[in-house]
């Protein structure tokens, strides 16, 4: 039923956790730049890297080399700080996804509170988009946040799929999927373009891949986990299959 949409849907492979393994020993391997090359050869439509304030995985050097080597598109994920905006303006990724960031968190925990900082985020969006870098805001599926995202004039939102992936039973999973679907529809009607991600796996990705109008899924942990056992090319190919409901 959703074959048409899933054919148009793209996969952004988040390679942060290749860098996590390297940083565990503060050495030079494995190199996320090499992982990105292999991921692209296997069919990744984009590469995502999150430059965190504490540099726990991706380093500035990685981002700069990725800018030179990525042949698809490079999505720089970062907090909306002056430091990150300056780096983005210099590196010029193909788009920037703004995320909230707390030092203690294991991974990005919730969506950005866009409604609570429209002025500040509008300024950041304007700076980046004036420089030709489209901005995506990572938000929870919440009508108020979607309306606020429209006000910032960001071109994209990325819907946080966390509540869907953490749903404990089928009824709550269906409810969260319906919320994602409505959020996607509301955002597109308001002129936004829509991506999604966080916590998606080979087993739960297909229903999200079927959401009408969804453009890109950003997926990291499950792909890199599988890559550690079967290699990144096979892991990426299999995720593309899972997105088409063929795994
Ligand atoms: N999208 C955003 C905004 C994220 O912060 C992350 C995690 O870095 C992802 C997608 C990918 O999440 P996961 O690693 O759980 O697939």
Question: What are the salient characteristics of this protein?
Answer:
globular, 247 residues, binds pyridoxine-5'-phosphate, 8 strands, TIM Barrel, 12 helices, 49% helix, alpha/beta
Task: Characterise the protein shown here.
- Helix 3 (32-41) runs parallel beside helix 4, helix 6 packs across helix 7 (143-152) and helix 11 packs across helix 12.
- The mean pLDDT is 95.
- The protein has one domain: Aldolase class I (TIM Barrel, Alpha-Beta Barrel), CATH 3.20.20.
- Helix 6 links the parallel strand 4 (95-98) and strand 5 (135-139).
- The protein has an eight-stranded parallel barrel, surrounded by eight helices.
- It is built from twelve helices and eight strands.
- It starts with a helix and ends with a helix.
- With 247 residues, the protein is α/β, with parallel strands linked by helices.
- Bound molecules: pyridoxine-5'-phosphate (PXP).
- Residues 14, 16, 50, 77, 97, 99, 107-108, 138, 158, 197-200, 218-222 line the site of pyridoxine-5'-phosphate.
- Pyridoxine-5'-phosphate is lined by residues 14, 16, 50, 77, 97, 99, 107-108, 138, 158, 197-200, 218-222.
């Amino acid at each position: 039923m959703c074959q048409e949409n899933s054919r148009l849907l793209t996969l952004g492979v988040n390679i942060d956790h290749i860098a996590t393994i390297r940083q565990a020993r503060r050495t030079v391997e494995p190199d996320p730049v090499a992982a990105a090359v292999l991921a692209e050869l296997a069919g990744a439509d984009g590469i995502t890297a999150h430059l965190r304030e504490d540099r726990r995985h991706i380093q500035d050097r990685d981002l700069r080399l990725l800018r030179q080597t990525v042949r698809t598109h490079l999505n720089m994920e970062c907090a909306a700080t002056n430091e990150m905006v300056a780096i983005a303006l210099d590196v010029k990724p193909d788009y920037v996804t703004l995320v909230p960031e707390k030092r203690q968190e294991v991974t990005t925990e919730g969506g950005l509170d866009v409604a609570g900082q429209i002025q500040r985020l509008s300024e950041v969006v304007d700076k980046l988009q004036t420089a030709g870098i489209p901005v995506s805001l990572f938000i929870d599926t919440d009508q108020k946040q979607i309306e606020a995202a429209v006000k910032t004039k960001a071109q994209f939102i990325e819907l946080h799929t966390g509540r869907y992936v953490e749903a404990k039973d089928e009824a709550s999973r269906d409810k969260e999927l319906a919320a994602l679907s409505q959020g996607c529809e509301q955002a597109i009607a308001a002129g936004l373009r829509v991506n999604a991600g966080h916590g998606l796996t080979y087993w739960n990705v297909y229903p999200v891949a079927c959401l009408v109008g969804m453009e890109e899924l950003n997926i990291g942990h499950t792909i890199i986990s599988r890559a550690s056992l079967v290699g990144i090319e096979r892991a990426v190919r299999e995720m593309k299959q899972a997105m088409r409901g063929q795994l």
